[in-house]
Design goal:
Length: 402
């Protein structure tokens, strides 16, 4: 028995995971499964709600399609991890505490910070009060109700990135009575190769989506969007998918963050200012050889798994290994039976190969459904979750000699 235990002090190492998105859930299941037989490790996952948010399907929920309600406690069953429902309202990185709902305080020895991003409705005046977002299933359901009640009119989708494209296509397919306008600075599919981009744009044309690229929204009004330059477009509903922002809690806690508020990490995903804090998913500014990673499910889940493995290594007195990840695809749905899948190099630049049509739609659905069997396998064989493309030369960082 240790001297600490004899003195009446707990020897349990408390690992607190904030956020049960794809990255946070991966960290919780991976870590709890690896530490299940250790009585000296306690894993607790905190999330604002018990329902898991399938962000990859929110554009479907927004058009009234009924999806399975996934329970976070049920996903954790058999791992030994505890679940705490509540909003994280403050983090004290020096005291190693997290405040939940302003009236509960949880202490930690190791923190895995996975409070991801939301649509940046604060970037443009009026978006917060007049636009719909796809941050949660509840948000998407509110939009679905609005679209159903419209009957006719114009829906403007602000943001021509992948979320905007999928949302516009889904709305146009499910609600052919509505006029759908997709606005953005860049052309839809701008990062794809020429053939994949052309297919995507032709699919939007077929669905009747009006695309206006090279424009920027200056203000969202109750019944219109005003563009930079003075033009305006009448709108019965505005869906905001342009840009994301992260919670200000990390910066307020004194953690070193980048210009977007993401926690700056070292090669092992630890905060550069607080080594007992790991950051995963959209909440982290993770540098690879090709630059800082951008938030996607394909990259988020590996960060969660790597953080969990790193925590286990540290508990065993070993040094965590550097994290490396290379992108491999960009799947984009274009309604329920069409899609385009752009295969990429590890730095996310497009390869020549791509898929289109029904086979691409099946591929996209397989990708979207993949987290659940992955989580199930990790419960039984934790090591099965630790396989992903490392990216070869694209992800190597040449560090200066000290």
């Amino acid at each position: 028995m240790s001297a600490q235990h004899e003195a009446g002090r707990s020897t349990t190492h408390r690992v607190l995971i904030l956020g049960a998105g794809y990255a946070g859930m991966s960290a919780a299941i991976q870590l709890a499964s690896r530490a299940k037989r250790r009585e000296d490790v306690q894993v607790t996952l905190v999330n604002a709600q018990e329902r898991f948010t399938e962000r990859l399907r929110l554009h479907m929920t927004a058009t009234g399609q009924q999806l399975a309600e996934l329970s976070i406690p049920e996903l954790l069953e058999g791992t030994g991890a505890q679940f705490v429902r509540g909003w994280v309202t403050a983090v004290d990185a020096d005291a190693k505490t997290v405040r939940i709902d302003d009236d509960r305080v949880l202490r930690y020895d190791t923190l895995v910070y996975g409070l991801g991003s939301v649509a940046d409705t604060a970037a443009v005046p009026g978006a917060e009060g007049h636009a719909y977002s796809l941050n949660s299933a509840q948000d998407a359901e509110v939009l679905a109700d609005r679209l159903t009640r419209l009957g006719s009119g114009t829906v403007v989708v602000g943001g021509s990135g992948l979320t905007g494209v999928e949302s516009a296509a889904e709305i146009a397919e499910r609600h052919p009575e509505l006029n759908v306008v997709l606005l953005g600075r860049a052309e839809p599919g701008a990062a794809m190769n020429a053939k994949a981009k052309a297919y995507l744009q032709a699919a939007l044309d077929r669905l009747g989506v009006q695309v206006r690229s090279g424009v920027e929204v200056a203000k969202v009004l109750p019944d219109a969007v005003e563009l930079v330059g003075g033009a305006s477009i009448a709108a019965n509903a505005v869906v905001w998918t342009s840009g994301t922002r992260v919670s200000p809690l990390a910066a307020a806690a004194g953690l070193t963050v980048d210009e977007r508020g993401r926690i700056v990490t070292d090669a092992a995903l630890r905060s550069v200012s607080h080594s007992e804090v790991y950051a995963v998913g959209d909440a982290a500014a993770i540098r690879q050889g090709y630059g800082v990673m951008h938030g996607t499910c394909q990259g988020g889940m590996p960060t969660g798994v790597h953080a969990a493995v790193s925590v286990v290594r540290a508990l065993k007195g070993k040094q965590p290994k550097p994290f490396r990840f290379g992108y491999y695809h960009t799947p984009v749905s274009l309604g329920r039976h069409d899609a385009v899948v752009q295969f990429t190099r590890p730095d996310d630049s497009p390869r020549r190969i791509h898929l289109t049509g029904p086979i691409a739609a099946r591929y996209k659905e397989t990708v979207t459904a993949s987290p659940w069997p992955t989580y199930g396998r990790m419960k039984k064989m934790p090591a099965s979750g630790a396989f992903w493309p490392r990216g070869g030369r694209f992800t190597r960082i040449i560090r200066e000699a000290r």
